[in-house]
Structures are given as structure tokens and as C-alpha cells.
Amino acid sequence: MSRTYQLEAGSQAATLNEAQLLDTQRAFDSVAADYDGPRGNNELIQRMRLTLWDTVRREIPAGSRLLDLGCGTGLDAVEFASRGYQVVASDWSPRMVERTHARAAAAGMQAQVSAVHVGVQQLDRLEGGFDGIYSNFGPLNCAPDMVEVAHQCARLLRPGGKLVFSVIGRICPWETGYYLFKGRFKRASIRATRGVTAVGMNRHTIWTQYYLPREFYRAFAPHFSLNGYRALSLFMPPPYLVDVYQRRRKFGEWLGRLDDRFGAWPLLRDMGDHFLIVMERR
Ligand SMILES: C[S@@+](CC[C@H](N)C(=O)[O-])C[C@H]1O[C@@H](n2cnc3c(N)ncnc32)[C@H](O)[C@@H]1O
Question: Atom 22 (ligand 1): residue with closest C-alpha?
Fold first, then answer.
């Protein structure tokens, strides 16, 4: 019998079972080989990535031990290793873990980056003593039980340690407008789904749950104080609309500056393609 995880999503409950976790694993395995290309690392993604890099470096001093949740191909892990951090890079997709391992080897960083096949639902397998934990571009949207993730993060982090997560948000005006314009009404409202929802990628399914920042923080509140959060790609289009950005690059850059300037403002910070949230272990 497959194990079922309970999820609290707003006032409703939803479930995410092992079959769905395996669907998600297969989806990411299927794209691992070319995930550094337009699908996983286009210009708009790179821009958001820089914001996470800057935030981690500001919040956690070089030389610290970091844990990457959902490391993908290891772009972040190798970047932080090159800046003097020690990184344990974890992912639920074995193909992604292989890519991270290969990237670290190619950069001569095997001593600084350890790539492990561990899902966010398996964090009890890891030893603690981390100074910071980060997660970039939504791995936590695939977590079956956020209360358990928060509990494990609290166990893995030393007091005063930081969490820096970029999470897919619920309110993305660009996405809603774009799909309404295309007449794809169901797709336009997908982020409003309560609980787990199926999102297609490469003819596979990723089982995803969307969050408002405050909704997300609720699971972490017993162990972590909230240092702040901001929108990522609110004025800028989301990454899959990179061609819109490339057609009007100057205008796009101006939108990017609006994100930098106003993305942390009240109300605005609750929107965007992703949000970046920083918490501190009490
Ligand atoms: C959108 S990619 C982001 C990858 C990477 N963080 C980056 O910035 O490029 C999401 C990643 O989350 C991983 N993932 C999905 N479900 C997961 C789970 N349950 N536990 C850990 N990682 C998961 C996927 O395999 C994939 O590598």
C-alpha cells in the first residue's frame, strides 16, 4: 500500500502519495540532461537566481555549511562552493543528482559539494549542523508535508541559522493575464487551486502546491522567526514568457528594476511568479 502524506492547504486538506512523488521524480529526471538550457536557466531565471545568490551571501557568511533542497543540476551549489561555502546538495531526482555531481567534479569542487539523492520528504536521513538551508525555484512546492519539512530544517540548523527559499507563489498577475488573454481559463486559475495540483512538463506530471508567503510561513513559525520576504518576477514576466522579454529587452530591463525597487513593498511582496523568503532559527 502506498504511503500517504497529509497536507494542510488553507482550510482544506489534500493528500500527496508516493505515486505522485514518483511522477514528479520522473518529470525532473526526463529534463535533467538539458535543464541548464532555456527550460531551466533562461535569462529571466538567471535574474531571479542572482537575487537568491545575493541574499544567501548577505545572510550567511562564507565558510559556512549549506544544505541545498532540490539542487537540480547544481548551479547554485557550485556557485556557493566557489565562494567558499561547503554545500550538501540534495534532490529527489537521481538524474539531477548525477548532474550536480558531474558539475562539481568538472569544477574541481568535489571536496566542497556533496550531492545526495534525498527528497525533501526524507530529510530525517541527513545529519545536522548546517548554518544555512536554501532552496531555489520551487522544490518546496513539491513537498508533501511542510510541517515535517520545517521540523527537519529546525533539527538540521544550528540556532541562529538561516533559511532562504524561493517558492512558487499563488498570485502571478502576468500568468493570469496571459492565459485569460489566450482563452485558457482553467490554466489561468491554476494557482488558486487549494491543495495539490497536477502541472504538465515534458509530457510528465509535476504535483505542485502553490503558497502565499504567509501561508507558507505558518508551517515554520513554531521554530523560525520571519526576517522578510519579497516578490520575484512580479513586474518582469515569468520565465516561460522569456520571448516577451527578449522582444522588448529595454522595457524588460525597466520592469526588472521595478522588481528590484518595489518587490519588497507590502502587498506587492505577496505577488509575483515566485517569492523569496528568509527565516531564522530561534
Ligand atoms: C524547478 S527545479 C529547480 C532546481 C534548482 N534548485 C535550480 O535552481 O535550478 C525543481 C527541482 O526540485 C526537485 N524536486 C522535486 N520534488 C522534490 C522533492 N520531493 N524533494 C527534493 N527535490 C525535489 C526536482 O528534481 C528539481 O531538481
Answer: 70
| Pocket (CB within 6 angstroms of ligand 1) | 21, 24, 28, 40, 70-72, 75-76, 91-93, 96, 119-121, 136-139, 142-143
Give 63's DSSP letter: T
Which triple of cell numbers denotes residue 91?
Answer: 534532490
Domain positions in the chain are: 4-281
Q: Tell me the CA–centroid distance for residue 74 and ligand 1, in Å.
A: 10
Average pLDDT value for the chain: 94
- Judged by DSSP in three states, 111 sits in coil
pLDDT in tens, 2-55: 343 433 333 333 567 899 999 999 999 999 999 998 888 999 999 999 999 999
Q: Whose CA is nearest to atom 4 of ligand 1?
A: 72
Task: Return the sign of the alpha-carbon dihedral for residues 18, 19, 21, 25.
Answer: positive
Q: For the full predicted model, state whether its pTM sits above 0.85.
A: yes
Using CA atoms, how far apart are residues 132 and 158, in angstroms rounded to an integer? 8
Nearest CA to ligand 1 atom 9: 72
Quick: pLDDT tens for 136-166. 999 999 999 999 999 999 999 999 999 999 9
- Classify domain 4-281 by CATH number: 3.40.50.150
